[in-house]
Amino acid sequence: MGLFRKNEKKKGSKNDLLSEEIFGYMQSEGFFPEMEEKDKGETDVSRIHFKFQGTNVTLETAEGNYVRIVMGFDLSHSNTDYFNLQCAASQIMYEMKAVKIVAAVKWIQFSVETFVQSAGTFTPFLKPYLDILSEAVGRHRILYSEFMEDKEPPCQTWEDELSSAEDNAMERAIEDAINSHGNKTLKN
Known about the structure:
The protein is an alpha+beta fold. It has one domain (14-179): Yope Regulator, Chain: A, CATH 3.30.1460.10. It contains 4 helices and 6 strands, in the order H-E-E-E-E-H-E-E-H-H. It has helices spanning 14-28, 82-95, 119-149, 158-181, and strands at 34-35, 45-52, 55-62, 66-74, 99-103, 107-115. Strands 1-2-3-4-6-5 form a 6-stranded antiparallel β-sheet. Strand 2 (45-52) and strand 3 form a beta hairpin. The termini are far apart. Mean pLDDT is 79; it is low at 1-10.
């Protein structure tokens, strides 16, 4: 089961009202949004599509006043190094806690998610969220390019990290044993 439960479309649901209010705000701010039509029986998720600084963006709302803003990119026509793509994504998510990045072989998505009380409490944050996503996309491109230029892997594999941690733990244990006994002779 996906992120959202399947429900019959309810006329005038809270989610529809939230998405319509956000849609109206976006129109007044000059975003030229387009509301995606829902099919009967589709999940109760409303999607608003628009462009921000030339990038396609989707704003999703769902029951429970959940809002997600997504910038997605198609990678199917590029020669992408998936390992470096994931390493750059991990670094960005570490640096920018509000951003989630999901990367697959043929696409990558950058998103910000939040719960809101109403459209009025969300709309002042729309532009800052979009700026955060744009910064994350730009930073990811730079990191990915740097990682592709490097000869060494940008991040350790879990085997390397485990081996390194085990080696460090063993070294500390030996050092502690030596220090705790000082120059005393060890007895059997």
